[in-house]
Amino acid sequence: MDLDEEAAPARGLRRYVERVGAAVGAGADLVVWMLDVPAAAYLPLAGRLPGFPGVDLALVWDEQVGWAAAIEADSGFDLIEVSYLAGDVLPEPAQVARFVAALLGGGRPGQPGRVVLRAVEDADLDRRLARYAQPGLNVPWSLSSGGTGPVLS
Question: Cross-referenced InterPro entries, in alphabetical order (predicted)?
Answer without folding.
Answer: DUF6292 (IPR046259)
